[in-house]
Amino acid sequence: MRVYNFSAGPAVLPEEVLKEAADEMLDYQGSGMSVMEMSHRSKTYDKIIKDAEADLRDLMQIPDNYKVLFLQGGASSQFAMIPMNLMKNRVADYIVTGQWAKKAYQEACIYGKANKIASSEDKTFSYIPDCSDLPISEDADYVYICENNTIYGTKFKTLPNTKGKPLVADVSSCFLSEPVDVSKYGLIYGGVQKNIGPAGVVIVIIREDLITEDVLEGTPTMFKYKIHADNGSLYNTPPAYGIYICGKVFKWLKKRGGLEAMKEYNEKKAKILYDFLDESSLFQGTVRKEDRSLMNVPFVTGSEELDAKFIQEATAAGFVNLKGHRTVGGMRASIYNAMPIEGVEKLVEFMKEFEKNNA
C-alpha cells in the first residue's frame, strides 16, 4: 500500500510516472535495455534529453537567449558554481531567508565579498523581509535569493528590486509549481528531488550573456557553465536516469494543463491545510500569513510531547515524513505537485480527530 508521503525531499512523484518508468525498466521503447544501461551518446538517449529540454522550455516559456543545463551535484553545488562563474567583480549581494540561502551566502564568502543585504534570521526565518528598496552594492555582480524556503515554509511573492543587477534564484522547492517569468532572472536553478524527479539532478536556466570564459581563477572545468552549455549538458556522463524521469514529469505536467493549472491545484491544496490551521485550537502555523509557501507548511502544537505523539500516530495511519526540521521543530507537510488533493484532505481529517482526542 502506498502511503501519503509529505517528505520535503526526496519527495512524492506522480504515480503515473512511476508506473510508466516501471513498464520501461527492462526495455525502453524496444531498445532491449533500460535507460539506466544506455549510452548517453546514443541516438535514443539524445532524444530523451532533447525532448526533456524542449518540454521544460515549453512549460516555462523559457526565452531563446537562455540555456538549460542538466547538471549533477544537487542544488548545493551551485552555491560555489554561481560565484565561480558570475563573481567578475568579486562582489555579490545575498538576501538570507533560510538555511539554504545562508549556506549559499557562506559559500560565496570564500570567493569574494558577499554582502548580506537583508535577512529574516531575527525571527527564525518566519517571514520574507521587504525587498523593495535594498542597499544593492554598486559593483555587485548579482543579487541572490532562495525563492521558497523548504525548511521554514516561506515564499517570495514579489521578487526583490535588484536595481538592474541580475537576479539569481534557488527555486528547488517551488520549481514548476506555478508560472514564472524567466526573463526576470539572470539565473534560476533547482535540485529536482522535490517537485520534478529523483535526487542527483540540478537544472540551471541561465541567460546567455552570463556564460563566459571569464571565470574565477582555479575554477574546475566541471564547474564552468560554458563547458556544459557548449556540450548540451553532455560534457561528461550526465545523471541520465534522473533526467529521463524529469522528462516524464514534464510531460505529466503538460498533460495536466501546464503551470497555470498546477498553480490553481496547489492553491486549492494549500488552502485546505492553512484554513484548518487558522481555525484550529491545537495546531498553529509558524509563518507570517502573507509569506506562506504553497509547497511547505510547517506547524506546531506548542508542546514537544504532543508533536512527537502526533508524528507517531500520523505515521501509523499512513501519513509519513511529517517531522519538522530540527531548527523549527514540530511538523512540516510538504505538498508538492504530485501530492494528491485527497492526501491533504485526509491529513486534515486526521488532524481534526487528533485535536478532538488531545484537546
Describe the structure.
By secondary structure, this protein is of the alpha/beta class. The chain folds into two domains: 241 residues, Type I PLP-dependent aspartate aminotransferase-like (Major domain) (Aspartate Aminotransferase, domain 2); 100 residues, Alpha-Beta Complex (Aspartate Aminotransferase, domain 1). The chain is built from nine helices and 14 strands. The strands form four sheets. Strands 2-10-9-8-5-3-4 form a seven-stranded mixed sheet. Strand 6 and strand 7 form a beta hairpin. Helix 1 crosses helix 6 and helix 7 runs parallel beside helix 9. The longest helix is centred in the last third of the chain and has 22 residues. The model has no long low-confidence stretch (mean pLDDT 97).
What is the helix fraction of residues, given as a range?
A: 25-40%
For the report, how would you describe the main beta sheet?
Answer: 7 strands, mixed
What is the mean pLDDT? 97
CATH architecture of the largest domain: 3-Layer(aba) Sandwich
Rg: 21 Å
The helix tally amounts to 9
- Oligomeric category: single chain
Structural category is: alpha/beta
Per DSSP, what share of the residues sits in E-state strands of 2 or more residues? 15-25%
CATH class of the largest domain: Alpha Beta
